[in-house]
């Protein structure tokens, strides 16, 4: 299978792993997410992979708070529910994104809405921190990165494969086997196929922060760039 052969040729690039680290910013946000539900653990809890930037810090802090409270699955479910609600309700989505809403109004609304919904203390405290800091508009991006962490914690790797036609079952299986060899037998590979006519052919593979572009569109651009280079006779 062409896709698997191309992927194997990129093995050296795929073998780089991010080390798990915690920044001072993560620790600062974690203190804001402290909950009475959390219990001291004999084993130090760390984020499974390093995330950077503001949304990465919030996602990492939420992961630590949920893990210490032994409620990762519940918090993940609640975070997914919030994202789903933003997609279903334009009004709710607009409320989250409207930075002109006074801080007191944001905090009260979050307290009322999610207390009534029966959300866990960890999730409610997390949303209150976002409301207080004017960061509710980033909740979807933070949620995506938090789910990345919970998947990494469970040994799951989401791989997005973009093609112009769906991969046949046999080729998808071979692709998963190739990724399994690269990422390790202890990982669970979750392949999500997306149709993208803009790539013209070939495929683009994305997982984590890595993108392997083997599309015809990119190859055509590379060929065009090569042909435009001056030739010495």
From TrEMBL:
<dbReference type="Pfam" id="PF00213">
    <property type="entry name" value="OSCP"/>
</dbReference>
<keyword id="KW-0066">ATP synthesis</keyword>
<dbReference type="InterPro" id="IPR020781">
    <property type="entry name" value="ATPase_OSCP/d_CS"/>
</dbReference>
<dbReference type="GO" id="GO:0016020">
    <property type="term" value="C:membrane"/>
</dbReference>
<dbReference type="InterPro" id="IPR000711">
    <property type="entry name" value="ATPase_OSCP/dsu"/>
</dbReference>
<keyword id="KW-0813">Transport</keyword>
<keyword id="KW-0406">Ion transport</keyword>
<dbReference type="GO" id="GO:0046933">
    <property type="term" value="F:proton-transporting ATP synthase activity, rotational mechanism"/>
</dbReference>
<keyword id="KW-0375">Hydrogen ion transport</keyword>
<dbReference type="InterPro" id="IPR026015">
    <property type="entry name" value="ATP_synth_OSCP/delta_N_sf"/>
</dbReference>
<comment type="similarity">
    <text>Belongs to the ATPase delta chain family.</text>
</comment>
<protein>
    <recommendedName>
        <fullName>ATP synthase subunit O, mitochondrial</fullName>
    </recommendedName>
</protein>
<keyword id="KW-0472">Membrane</keyword>
């Amino acid at each position: 299978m062409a896709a698997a052969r191309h992927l194997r040729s990129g093995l050296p690039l795929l073998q780089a792993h991010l080390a798990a680290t915690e920044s001072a910013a993560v620790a600062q946000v974690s203190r804001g997410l402290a909950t009475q539900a959390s219990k001291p653990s004999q084993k130090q809890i760390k984020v499974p992979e390093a995330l950077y930037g503001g949304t990465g810090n919030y996602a990492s802090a939420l992961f630590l708070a949920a893990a210490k409270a032994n409620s990762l699955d519940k918090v993940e479910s609640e975070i997914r529910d919030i994202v789903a609600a933003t997609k279903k309700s334009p009004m709710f989505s607009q409320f989250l994104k409207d930075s002109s809403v006074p801080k007191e109004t944001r905090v009260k609304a979050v307290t009322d809405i999610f207390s009534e919904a029966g959300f866990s203390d960890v999730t409610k405290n997390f949303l209150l921190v976002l409301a207080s800091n004017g960061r509710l508009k980033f909740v979807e991006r933070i949620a995506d990165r938090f789910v990345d962490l919970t998947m990494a914690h469970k040994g799951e790797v989401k791989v997005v494969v973009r093609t112009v036609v769906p991969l046949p079952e046999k080729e998808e299986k071979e692709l998963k086997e190739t990724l399994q060899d690269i990422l390790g037998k202890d990982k669970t590979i979750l392949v999500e196929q997306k149709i993208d006519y803009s790539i013209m052919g070939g495929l683009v593979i994305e997982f984590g922060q890595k993108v392997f572009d083997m599309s015809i569109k990119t190859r055509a651009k590379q060929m065009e760039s090569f042909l435009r280079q001056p030739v010495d006779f």
